[in-house]
């Protein structure tokens, strides 16, 4: 097993990429703390993990709240005896409007969850991972954090920030045997793209706008996350891995 006896936290673990990664971690031997703002979805992920013979707990968490992040990490460490893997995955989109029409309050919320949430996850996970002898932090950026897209200003900016924050943390914490990387998913079949699917004009274009001509699945992204979390990526840090079917080059 690639994560045997490892202890992991997955934020946004109630659905989509987070759920797929949490279940995959468990199948590979990790004990998992599933964090999500949605208790029902988070508990469902825990149940899925237990169905495959894994061990997991759910901790309701708003990743934009530092006290809740601290509590998440403390509960995980106290329950399982440490921390080796932190997957800062929780994120939201924004209303598809011009930048000048985006409400300031919505900008703040998107940046708080997508970027500040990653910052807080790094800030409070590093001491615990260090005490456990080192490990891996993986942050979720996006294809749109690398190339941008109109009408998605808050999302674009927050996800671009994750890329450079990842590099910064990799430089700071490599000496503690902590690797910090990011993933940049393209169009993945999760709830964040539901509105796009309803657009009969745009969806046929969006759904094929990459080299492979299709959208990805959460499991395909989870494969990449697993790799970065595992010792197979022992000499990889500070990088952002595109998991986009070639969307960045399209």
Distance between the termini: 36 Å
Kindly give the count of domains: 1
Largest sheet, described in full?
7 strands, parallel
- List unreliable stretches of 5+ residues: none
The succession of helices and strands, N to C, reads EHEHEHEHEHEHHHE
CATH class: Alpha Beta
Q: What fraction, in percent, of the residue positions are helical?
A: 40-55%
Architecture per CATH nomenclature, i.e. the level-2 architecture = 3-Layer(aba) Sandwich
Mean pLDDT: 97
Biggest sheet: strands side by side, in what order? 3-2-1-4-5-6-7
Look up the CATH topology: Rossmann fold
Strand elements, count = 7
* Shape designation: globular
Radius of gyration: 17 Å
- Assign the structural class, choosing from mainly alpha, mainly beta, alpha/beta, alpha+beta, or little secondary structure: alpha/beta
How big a fraction of the residues is strand?
A: 15-25%
Going by CATH, the homologous superfamily would be NAD(P)-binding Rossmann-like Domain
In DSSP terms, counting alpha (H) and pi (I) runs of 4 or more, how many helices? Answer: 8
């Amino acid at each position: 097993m690639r994560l045997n006896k490892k202890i992991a936290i997955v934020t946004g673990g109630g659905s989509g990429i987070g759920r797929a990664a949490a279940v995959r971690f468990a199948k590979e031997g990790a004990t998992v703390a599933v964090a999500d703002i949605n208790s029902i979805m988070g508990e469902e992920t825990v149940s899925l993990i237990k169905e495959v013979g894994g061990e997991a707990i759910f901790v309701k968490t708003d990743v934009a709240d530092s006290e809740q992040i601290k509590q998440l990490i403390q509960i995980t460490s106290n329950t399982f005896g440490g921390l080796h893997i932190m997957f800062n995955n929780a994120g939201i989109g924004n209303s598809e409007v011009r930048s000048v029409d985006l409400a300031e309050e919505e900008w703040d919320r998107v940046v708080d969850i997508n970027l500040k949430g990653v910052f807080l996850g790094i800030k409070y996970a590093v001491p615990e991972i260090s005490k456990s002898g080192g490990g891996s932090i993986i942050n979720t950026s996006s294809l749109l954090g690398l190339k941008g897209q109109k009408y998605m200003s808050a999302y674009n900016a927050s996800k671009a920030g994750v890329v450079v924050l990842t590099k910064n943390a990799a430089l700071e914490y490599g000496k503690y045997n902590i690797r910090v990387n990011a993933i940049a998913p393209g169009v993945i079949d999760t709830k964040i793209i539901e509105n796009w699917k309803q657009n009969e004009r745009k969806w046929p274009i969006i759904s094929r706008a990459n080299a492979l001509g299709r959208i990805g699945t959460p499991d395909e992204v989870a494969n990449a996350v697993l790799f970065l979390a595992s010792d197979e990526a022992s000499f990889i840090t500070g990088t952002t891995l595109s998991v986009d079917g070639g969307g960045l080059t399209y």
